[in-house]
Amino acid sequence: MSNTTITLKNGVQMPAIGLGVFQTPPEETREAVKAALATGYRHIDTAAAYGNEKEVGQALADSGVPRDEVFIETKIWISDYGYDQTLHGFEKSAAKLGVEQIDLLILHQALPTDFDRTLEAYRALETLLEQGKVRAIGVSNFMVDHLTQLLQRATVVPAVNQIEVHPYFQQPEVQAFGADHGIVTQAWSPIGGITFYRDGEHTSTLEDPTIVRIAAAHAKSPAQVMLAWHLQQGRSVIPKSTKAHRIAENFDVFDVELSDEELAAINALETGRRGGPEPADITLEAYGMPIPEA
After folding, report:
1. Which residue in the list 50, 81, 122, 168 is annotated as catalytic?
2. What tens digit of pLDDT does each residue of 6-24 get?
3. pTM here?
4. Is 50 a catalytic residue?
């Protein structure tokens, strides 16, 4: 497997593997990002709601890696939806990251109870794209109905939809809709970092017998096999770790070539059970929080 980058709908090249920093404490984020950049990562995924954009920016500045070699992705939180609010959300994120241009800016969630506000937020992303302040725009945790409504109004098709995808929860209908419209699926929790219940037992994808067997056949770890499974099917992945050896391991997957049978065996592990919150349940009342100024 040699495709280390994915070409987005507008021609922008995005490194296929990025370091995710979801739930990484700010004090640990800088070292994790520095370790990732030293390993060879050139894609970092953060979000305004994570509270660690500033540390990502500091690590980038400290790394010595030229800015134009690193793909920076961040997300606007629902509290900053609305046209003017989202434009300001970009300014806050860019200032914390210490950059003038963000490579990929996405909406963190749909707001089903106030979709007009979601549409206005996306219109702001389109403006930022037109102004050259971002290189690509997209969404996260959008289901087929959200994407359908968005495409009825949008002038720019989202380049990416970042959703929960791992062997136990694959969202094939969302992936298929995205593929039909040229929207890249980007997997968060790509190795099933949340623990799942399968057949009444408390187990993890990392201990799944099918994945363990395939990993042994390739002399790789279960995590590496799962990341290869994503990449071979055209998805972007943003595995999270704060441990330097895990960060390096997660990047060492481009020499893995799974057979069609192995891919199918992993596909067959689907449980239909979501680990993250139900997208339909996202409301400002339940999930809104102020995003601080830079």
Report:
1. 50
2. 999 999 999 999 999 998 9
3. 0.96
4. yes
